[in-house]
Design a protein that fits this description.
By secondary structure, this protein is α/β, with parallel strands linked by helices. Helices cover 40% and strands 20% of the residues. Helix 5 (154-168) runs parallel beside helix 6 (186-197). The longest helix is centred in the N-terminal third of the chain and has 24 residues, at 3-26.
Length: 399
């Protein structure tokens, strides 16, 4: 080989090695050459206004972040992500799904509301287009073929806490259970909590106190109900609120003089809740059970949380994480489905992807198409000038 040809060969090898290294560092998926595959459409269903907007924003943020980190591709195909407004009721959710199906989407994702998930079930199943739901996950959604969920099943949060508190609380502790009436999923959480704690245990014998289920309650909406719950001088409050309702409930509970321990599914302190509580000290010490904590120490979470903070200047939530994972499972399933995937082929491939290397820790789909995953205990603690959910320990593997 001539000196000129040898130098040219070395240059080419160096170029190939460098490009391969860059591709390997930049993607969750297997590195591959620039794709000439045909573009695909993915439909994202999320509320874009009203009480559910904060969750809807997180669902969008998580999915978009995965695309950003993977060259805007899923399974080697360039992605056109089409977002439809879920709205705040079943009718608007159904309209969003129908509109996306008319545009020929390969798969659907998102869905914040459990009521909407119930309402779109038959539409999705009849269309035979896979839906990877990334939030709403009622346990009674059974016998589905095309609906998968990367979030959780609602009774699992109650089960994780019930199992933990049964052993954690002293024999003299008393638990006041305060829940919003008419909120979809609350009965599931309560059932899971009581079954794991023990229905006949005297520590949870007090009747449930039901409050308004309004998603945007007034500054006094919970006062009389909270006072009624505190008559028995409980040492612990178990509750289930989220968003604006969570902010008001926590502040009104503290205003009523309760300084005991508060336990709840993680939605109580997720999203912007901690930023909105005043004074912030009212949230300190609250413990919640969730399938994710932003400070989990694993490689997938370090990458995800770092990229999320860089892009949004805040820590990621479980809503964003589950949507990120929805993109990841679609990436793997579409790759398995071949060069010209159909919705039905992608749906079959979803059952073959196995274990997911996720920011929450490794998980996999179980028979009902929901995650078998770890649940974590988190506590609200100070982190400099702000308060945040800090990982305390693992609770259980459920699903």
């Amino acid at each position: 080989m001539s000196q000129m040809n040898r130098r040219r060969a070395l240059q080419l090898l160096a170029a190939i090695g460098t490009s391969g290294l860059v591709a390997g560092c930049g993607s969750d998926a297997e590195p591959e050459a620039a794709s000439s595959a045909s573009p695909i459409k993915i439909g994202l269903i999320a509320p874009q206004s009203g009480a559910g907007k904060a969750v809807g924003d997180e669902l969008g943020n998580g999915f978009e972040l995965y695309l950003d980190l993977n060259d805007r591709q899923l399974g080697g195909h360039p992605v056109d992500l089409i977002t439809a407004d879920e709205g705040d009721d079943v009718k608007s959710g159904q309209a969003a799904v129908e509109g996306l199906l008319k545009q020929g989407v390969l798969a659907l994702t998102g869905v914040a509301s459990s009521a909407v998930m119930f309402g779109i079930r038959d539409i999705v199943e009849q269309a035979r287009v896979p839906l990877i739901g990334s939030n709403a996950s009622p346990p009674s959604l059974q016998s589905v073929v095309y609906i998968w969920r990367t979030s959780y099943v609602l009774d699992e949060a109650g089960r994780a806490l019930g199992r933990y508190l049964k052993d954690e609380l002293a024999a003299t502790d008393r638990v006041a259970t305060i829940l919003p009436e008419g909120v979809l999923g609350v009965e599931d959480v309560l059932r899971g909590f009581r079954e794991e704690f023990g229905e006949s245990d005297p520590r949870i014998a007090s009747p449930v106190v039901w409050t308004s289920g309004d998603s945007s309650p007034s500054r006094t909406a919970y006062v009389s109900d909270i006072n009624r719950a505190l008559v028995g001088n409980p040492s612990v409050v178990f509750c289930f609120y989220s968003g604006t309702a969570a902010v008001e409930f926590i502040m009104q509970l503290r205003d009523a003089g309760f300084r005991g321990r508060i336990y709840a599914p993680g939605f109580l302190t997720e999203g912007s809740v901690l930023e909105d509580i005043r004074p912030t000290s009212d949230a300190l010490g609250i413990r919640t059970a969730l399938n994710y904590s932003a400070d989990l120490n694993n490689a997938a979470n370090r990458r995800f949380a770092s990229a999320y903070r860089k892009k949004h200047n805040t820590s990621p939530t479980t809503y964003a994480m589950a949507s990120y994972d929805a993109a990841k499972v679609l990436d793997q399933a579409i790759r398995l489905a071949g060069e010209a995937p159909t919705p039905q082929q992608v749906n079959l491939a979803l059952g073959r992807i196995g274990q997911i290397d996720s920011p929450r820790g490794a998980w996999q789909f179980n028979q009902p198409r929901t995650p078998q995953q770890k649940w974590y205990l988190r506590e609200v603690q100070r982190d400099g000038q702000v308060v945040s959910n800090v990982l305390v320990n693992e609770l259980a593997t459920l699903g």
